[in-house]
Design a protein that fits this description.
With about 120 residues, this protein is mainly α. It has one domain: Butyryl-Coa Dehydrogenase, subunit A, domain 1. It has six helices and no strands.
Length: about 120
């Protein structure tokens, strides 16, 4: 068995890492702790634009239809950068709980960064 990540997984991690490095995630976390949500909202918008919020959301609802490996790759980068806010709830938990329910229409809003948990 091969447990190495594929090149596209490494590229995904590098892309999210570059975005968060440029965003100065430590400053975003400090602002969040001080009650200023604006910098985090900006980062959330950038993450949504790059498809992070839609990783586990299927194509028909505007997501990437990715799997658990891609989610873990991105979660590791988000954790390393200490990005504040409801990321796990929005990126991983909500899509999993809403898929196949009457609330599945909200998945497009999550993927587009217009709805957070």
């Amino acid at each position: 068995m091969d447990f190495l990540l594929a090149d596209f997984h490494n590229d995904l991690a590098a892309s999210v890492d570059a975005l968060l490095t440029k965003a100065d995630s430590p400053a975003v976390a400090r602002a969040w702790a001080a009650g200023d949500r604006a910098p985090a909202a900006n980062v959330f918008g950038q993450l949504a634009d790059t498809g992070v919020f839609g990783l586990l959301i299927d194509d028909e609802h505007g997501g990437a239809g990715a799997g658990a490996v891609e989610m873990v790759v991105v979660a590791e980068v988000l954790g390393r950068h200490g990005v504040p806010g409801p990321l796990a709830e929005t990126v991983a938990v909500a899509p999993t709980l809403l898929a196949g329910t009457d609330a599945a229409d909200d998945l497009g809003a999550i993927a587009g960064g217009r709805l957070a948990s």
